[in-house]
Amino acid sequence: MPSVRLDLDPSLRIDDYRYHHTLRVRFAETDAMGIVHHSRYLPYLEEARVEYLRALDHPYDALRAEGVDIAVLEAYVRYRQPLRFDELVTVHLLMGSATRTTFQMAYLLTVDGQPRATAVTVHGCVNGDGRPVRMPTWLVELATS
Amino acid sequence: MPSVRLDLDPSLRIDDYRYHHTLRVRFAETDAMGIVHHSRYLPYLEEARVEYLRALDHPYDALRAEGVDIAVLEAYVRYRQPLRFDELVTVHLLMGSATRTTFQMAYLLTVDGQPRATAVTVHGCVNGDGRPVRMPTWLVELATS
Amino acid sequence: MPSVRLDLDPSLRIDDYRYHHTLRVRFAETDAMGIVHHSRYLPYLEEARVEYLRALDHPYDALRAEGVDIAVLEAYVRYRQPLRFDELVTVHLLMGSATRTTFQMAYLLTVDGQPRATAVTVHGCVNGDGRPVRMPTWLVELATS
Amino acid sequence: MPSVRLDLDPSLRIDDYRYHHTLRVRFAETDAMGIVHHSRYLPYLEEARVEYLRALDHPYDALRAEGVDIAVLEAYVRYRQPLRFDELVTVHLLMGSATRTTFQMAYLLTVDGQPRATAVTVHGCVNGDGRPVRMPTWLVELATS
């Protein structure tokens, strides 16, 4: 087991998630296998996290303006079925499994309700120099609620 | 634990790896935190895999010409210390943990011998339509040797 | 003048364009200068082209299914003011200046109505092998109307 | 003509350039047309510029440490023949056409000596806030020599 921290097991059931964000696959994100390159899923997860924070009235921009960045400590993706150009991908997400300095998020990516990928990311808050800082209270509450 | 397959635990000791490939961080790979964006590590791992196959006299191009692609089924990265613009990153890698249709690779990324990240990828061979095919014999032997 | 073909001069007046598409800057698209990396504008233009074709009832997917790809022959971008993370960017576009085998598009990128960049792309239709083919009639008509 | 500044006409003759840098196409840089995505050429040009400055003993890192960034004001690429996965691309470059605050670079991209693309970029020096600053003397001398 490659990590001591990553421990969420992302569900394949859409109802198990709290938020979703839909985006469309760009041609620039495909590769010569005709499918979305595996590295391109991580920006999809990031875009969904940013929209989630905005929906919670804690836009990431405001966090950054306070000198707090949310660093990615670990990332895991399981590619179940390929994504293709122009598909509408829904990223379902759920925050969970928090400690005082880290939290995890689970993701399910679907197209027309069918699972295409699952993922987990582990995050910590850092300051402008990249040093760990305590998470904002609302974030701790969110992760443990 | 989010996966039934990913089971390699990447070592922090350079000597535990069989091959290494060095590349330089591009400015285009950094983000507004001043460090390499976390999604950009996956193409580094891919570049190292491609060079490894070339070093083994089984260039990926030749594989693709035979109609075999190596798909990424799972990917895991642990970001230990950031990578920065212009740094020379050495990707150490090790193939292991094969089944008849999948194999795993473990990675250690270092700068000046210091660990920056570890990673694991799980792969399967597919044909031009993305359907699983049996791995070439040399690949099975390599993964189990 | 580096090209014999690129000849559109993109206007700074929004009203001079026929279509617009709005997208939000991803964190993954920023660089260590804290702004969107200059290479990331081209996928924005591409996304706007794809949405324009969809709005015209000629989705790019359908074109590709007929074996026709729209290749980029030339691209020019003038970066006037930087784009930043999370900004909503509106890409205004206009098709023009067609020949039998090529057409050009002009672009104006704005945030809150203020110009950030202008651009021109030159395109040709190609088949699956990348060989030039005649443009579909509707595309010629569009470009010359 | 879309720009008042971009005026270099990149030659197709390798001998007309002063410096070259070779890189290998990554799989992650290809798209579903099986060729390198057109947006991916700009990081190639950037990588070549960075290596050129290093070869001149003025590494870009040192510039940035002094608070000077080299911004891209305009970029133009002409795609003559596609680039493909695993190809070794040589980027030939030439600095020219400087003013007190801007300079231009011309590029020729070749594979096995055959032209694949030409390009021009226009640059200005900016400080950490993105405001234009005077170019370092060595850079002016280089551009006008």
N- and C-termini, Cα separation of chain A: 27 Å
Order of helices and strands of chain A: EHHEEEEH
Silhouette of chain A: globular
Average of per-residue pLDDT values of chain A? 91
Given the structure, what is the number of helices of chain A?
3
Q: What is the rounded Rg of chain A?
A: 15 Å
Strand content of chain A: 25-35%
Which structural class do you get from the secondary structure elements of chain A? alpha+beta
Q: Any chance you could write out the topology, listing elements then pairs?
A:
The structure is a homotetramer of 145-residue chains.
Chain A: E1 19-24, H1 41-55, H2 60-65, E2 69-79, E3 88-96, E4 102-111, E5 114-126, H3 137-144
Antiparallel strand pairs in A: 1-3, 2-5, 3-4, 4-5
3D structure, described in words:
Four copies of one chain form a homotetramer. By secondary structure, chain A is of the alpha+beta class. Helix content of chain A is 20%, strand content 34%. Chain A has three helices and five strands. The first copy, chain A, has a five-stranded antiparallel sheet. In chain A, a hairpin with a 5-residue loop joins strand 3 (88-96) and strand 4. The longest helix of chain A is centred in the N-terminal third of the chain and has 15 residues, at 41-55. Chain A starts with 18 loop residues before the first strand and ends with a helix. The mean pLDDT of chain A is 91. The interface between B and D is medium-sized, with 16 and 16 residues. Strand 2 of chain A pairs antiparallel with strand 2 (69-79) of chain B.
